Amino acid sequence: MNDKNIRPRGIIALMLGVVLSVGFLSTNAIAKPAPVTKITFKLSDHNVPPGAAVTGSILVRTRSNHEWVPFAGAPLSVRVDGAEVLDLVTGADGRVTVSYVAPEGGHVMRVVFLGDDTHKRARRSQGFAVVAGATAVPAAPVLTATAGLAVVNLSWTVPFDGGSGITGYAIYRGTSSGGETLLASVAPGTTYPDASVTSGITYYYRVLATNADGDGATSNEVSGTPA
User: Fold this and answer.
1) What percent of the chain has a predicted confidence (pLDDT) above 90?
2) Phi/psi at 20 (nearest 5 deg)?
3) Of 13, 14, 62, 132, which residue is most buried, by most CB within 10 angstroms?
4) Which CATH number is 37-130's, of 1.10.10.10, 3.40.50.920, 2.40.280.10, 2.60.40.1930?
5) Domain 143-224 carries which CATH code?
6) What span, in angstroms and rounded, lies between the C-alpha atoms of 210 and 59?
7) Domain boundaries of the chain, sorted by first residue
8) pLDDT digits (tens, 9 = 90+) for 38-76
């Protein structure tokens, strides 16, 4: 066979191999798309009386290894009728609550995650109305705790009742922050002495009010260590 015919074919094969190799490397160098972000947003009540806060729960998740997992530390913008009213950040479980007092009339609340270098943008909206005569669950009480000898004394403010009278309070207790479970349900009042405690152990508390519409917003968390 003529060497003149072999040489060009060899050169062409070599060039083709280089092109294929470069193409393979370029394909591998393409960045993976940012994970999808999903927001679950639910309002406690879509009709509230004037002066009552519309409250809701937010859960943000993202994809990891083909599974939906909580998105901790996700920064969220809460907008009502297009205007930003709150900035929120999700907790370790991907959850956060929202509470906002709006003027009378119909409104749209939108929760927006603006996206970042590694997660895609996401948003969810819910409509609600502030209507005279409507009722809602109570607002959140403000809770304080004072530890004493074998007792932790709790006291709280009376929250806005949502337009329907408060029927009682639910008191939650735990031995770790965020780990409270129901301790007692009590009649309307503003104090509760917790004597079922052990000296030297720190207890954490929250309280909420109830009415005919259901359980209200949960109070701030407080702690006490009885002597």
Assistant:
1) 69
2) -65, -40
3) 62
4) 2.60.40.1930
5) 2.60.40.10
6) 24
7) 1-30, 37-130, 143-224
8) 999 999 889 989 988 898 999 999 988 889 999 999 999
- What tens digit of pLDDT does each residue of 188-209 get? 999 999 999 999 999 999 999 9
* Structure-token pair, residue 114: 């603006």
d(CA 190, CA 166): 12
